[in-house]
Amino acid sequence: MSKRRFTAVLAALAVAGGAAVIIPATQAAAAPCSSYQSWVRGQSYQVGDIVRYTDGRAYIAEHANPGYDPTVSTWFWNPHTCETGPVEPEPTEPAGDFVVSSAQFNQMFPGRNSFYTYAGLKAALSAYPAFAKTGSDTLKKQEAAAFLANINHETGGLVHVVEQNTANYPHYCDASQPYGCPAGQAAYYGRGPIQLSWNFNYKAAGDALGIDLLRNPSLVQNDSAVAWKTALWYWNTQSGPGTMTGHNAMVNGAGFGQTIRSINGSLECDGRNPAQVQSRINSYQRFAGVLGVPTGGNLSC
Prior knowledge:
GO terms for molecular function: chitinase activity. The protein is mainly alpha-helical. It folds into 2 domains: about 1-90, no CATH class; about 90-295, Lysozyme (Orthogonal Bundle). It has 10 helices and 4 strands. The protein has helices at about 25-30, 100-110, 120-125, 135-155, 200-210, 220, 225-235, 245-250, 255-270, 275-290; strands at about 25, 50, 60, 75-80. The protein has a 4-stranded antiparallel beta sheet. Helix 5 packs across helix 7 (about 225-235) and helix 9 packs antiparallel against helix 10.
C-alpha cells in the first residue's frame, strides 16, 4: 500500500441523519449554548444556522452544507460565541477485555477529532480478535501502544480523518483492475486512522471485513467503527513495504521498528527520514508509559 499523507483538516463528513430544528443566528446571538438544537450529521444547514455540537459548544454555518462536522469542516462552520455552561467531559469506560481504557485513550489523544471514538475502536476489535490479546499482559499492552503510536503519527493525534489534498484524489483509481472504480475515479482517497487509499485496497479491506467498501468508500469517513476496522485490517494483515505485519512484528519480538517499516518503510526507514521515525518512536514511548509497560528493543528501522 503506497503512503498516504494527511495535509490539512477534514473538509467534509456527511451521512444520513434525522431532522433538527435550527435557531437562526438573528434570533439567538445572545442565547446560551444549551438553547440551540444539537447538530445532526447529514442534516442540511443554511448560512446563519447555529447548532450545539457534541462538546456543548455552538457553531454557526458560514456556508450551506449537508451536515458536515463543525469541528473539522472549518470552511463551512465557525465557532459561535454564546453563554457557555460547563462542558460535560466524555464519559469514561472501563477497558473490559481491551488493554487500553477510555481514560487512557483520552490521555493519549487529548485533542482528537470527535469522529475517532473509543466506542468505535472497541466495536472494531471483534474483527481481529488476536489484536492486543496475544501473549503476556505486557506484550498485549505493547502491541496496543505500538498500533496507537503509529496512528497518532499518521493522523496528527487522531485529528485528521481524510486526505485534504484533493488534487491527489483522481490518482487513486487503478482502472486496470477488473472491478474498476464503481464509486467514481476520485472516490478512493485516503481515509481513516491508517489512511486507506486506492480502489484495490478498499476492495481488499472490504472483502476481509464483509463490507462493500469498493462501492461505498465513504463509510470509512462516516462510520467510526468501520474506520477503525480498516486500520486494524492493515495492522493485522498487511506487511506493506516491510516483511511482516505490524501485529506479527510486536507479538514475535521483532520490535516497534518493524511496525514502522510495514507502514511507511519505503519513505522513512534505512535513514531516509529519521525525524519521522523518531516521531513515531516518541509516541510509542509515551503510550507505553501511559500503559505502564517497557517499550522493548529494536525501536528504530
